[in-house]
Hints:
InterPro entries: aa-tRNA-synt_IIb (IPR002314), aa-tRNA-synth_II/BPL/LPL (IPR045864), Anticodon-bd (IPR004154), Anticodon-bd_dom_sf (IPR036621), Thr-tRNA-ligase_IIa (IPR002320), ThrRS_anticodon (IPR047246). This protein has helices at 75-82, 100-117, 157-161, 188-198, 222-234, 248-257, 268-273, 291-303, and strands spanning 31-36, 52-60, 86-92, 121-125, 134-140, 146-155, 166-167, 174-175, 178-183, 212-216, 239-242, 262-266, 275-280, 286-290.
Amino acid sequence: MLLSLQHSASVATIPRHQQWGPPSPEISRRRSVLCHAGELKAAVAGKHWCRHRCEHAVPCPWSPDGSGLNCLSGWLILESFTGMSLVVHLQRPEKYLGDIETWNKAEQQLTEALNEFGKPWQINEGDGAFYGPKIDIGVFDALKRKFQCATLQLDFQLPLRFKLTYSAEDEAKLERPVMIHRAILGSVERMFAILLEHYNGKWPLWLSPRQAIVCSISSNSVEYAKQVRARIHEAGFHVAIDETDRTIQKKVREAQLAQFNYILVVGAQEAETGQVSVRVRDKAELATVSIDDIITRFKEEVAAYK
């Protein structure tokens, strides 16, 4: 008996995104594409095993100088923000579509782009897709396992098969674009699983879903705790409040176990002076500062990706 396909995962939807109107699409128009792909259970496990990934399909002019590949520098942000090392490969499959001359030109452009990228890279012979040369960027997790993260691929076949054209400088002449498939993170879910292990559950402030919590010492300071929480929330930060009728020691301990970046303790003295007592995660420091000062500190840390 055949299984029903009503609830099956959709296949890669990149070809459907080639059909734009009017017939001459705006060049360099980016489309985010949701794709699904099977993963062998033996290859990945846990939260790393996911079938969903996201990439962009970018039609752009075929540029002899490779100027359309300047998006490579964006991947350095991942390394600088997280501290994870990048592993870069140029994929070269054994079988391919199209003529060898076009492939050689494309590989030459990718090679020049990688050299300008400034990171060590290697050629991965026999791997990659048959429809265009590809750059593969991976990262190592906390257990030194390599995972594919970002990709950049030149595709000459889809524009050819869908007859995509654009008006060149001479409007009477139509040119064939090249399709750039690129993904910064690949599978977002997998990347968050890698980051979770990388940070050991202790997210930096700019990524943390638990940036701060306000803990009231007694019922008399609950109203002020709500005011503090509202001020920080209005500034654009994730902030919780613990106004339960428990000792402050239990509240702080629970907040520490929940890995809040900042624990803000308020009592009668803080309410009178308009301040908060600050406890920083994994640090013994305890300081009393104004609400404006702590908001400024949050903004500076987020801006510095700490």
